[in-house]
Amino acid sequence: GLTKADRELIIVATSSHNKCLYCVVSHSALHRVYSKKPTLSDQVIVNYQIADLTPRERAMLDFAMAVCRCDTITDEHFLSLEEVGFDREDAWDIAAIAAFFAMSNRLAHLTDMKPNLEFFNMGRVPRDKSKSKTEM
Q1: What are the protein's GO molecular function terms (predicted)?
Q2: By residue range, what is the domain housing residue 29?
């Protein structure tokens, strides 16, 4: 199945392709938090094809981007996923996330949605553990 970090990485890649600032910034923040890889989402934003991805992540994003671009999905797409351990249910989940965020990206554009400033540093800068949650 997909991890939380996987889901966020799909959103980052497809939202970058769709030029959605809100989703790129907010979901890259969540990816940094879930993955504990503070630079990977930035690499994916610029060009996922040259990012430091595992073979599993690369196959996942190749499939997500094919859905995002409305490419014709072929048996080769599914075979590429299966080669790295994904099944048809995982393929459905990857495609559903890409498709849902295609709509979400467009609605964010329509409403001129801007990311909260906190998202820009989230997962990059260690939290000050001396502050209580009520101070944040």
Answers
A1: peroxiredoxin activity
A2: 4-116
